[in-house]
Task: structure prediction
Amino acid sequence: MITGDPTTRGRGLVAAQMALIAALVLRPRRDRWRRRPRGLLRVAGGVLLAAGAVVGGLGARRLGPALTPMPQPRPGATLRTDGVYGVVRHPIYAGLVLGAVGRAATTGLGRHVVAAGALVGVLTLKVRDEEVLLRERFPDYDAYAERTPRLLPGVGARRRPPPA
Result:
């Protein structure tokens, strides 16, 4: 259950999300005391950034005109359960998390690590609110959530055994 007005809370979460994304995207100023990550950490960060862009982009594309930054589904939207939405329930948020962690890994800046962690927290709240609203709107959402992980493939879905 969402306490308070879901639209007001949704706007606050979107504002926090955008501010944290901006903190991650803005070019870091020179810091002569910081050592830039090298080698495997930097490569892994780049891979995570690219994976986040692909996963998030696929999710946004699949939603099409139903895409909204707000947790409330748009009027007339349908529940998407195929494509990337058949792998995870929230691919755009998963992409944002992957990208944020990748950015923090590639820059090595403490402020990016903090912003990535804070973004995970904001998106966790947003996902919870969004799922309440999706359950209210779509009667099939519980069955979809039963078989599909929230953010990471293989993590979080309560898969039922196949019928005998």
The mean pLDDT is 88. The radius of gyration is 17 Å.
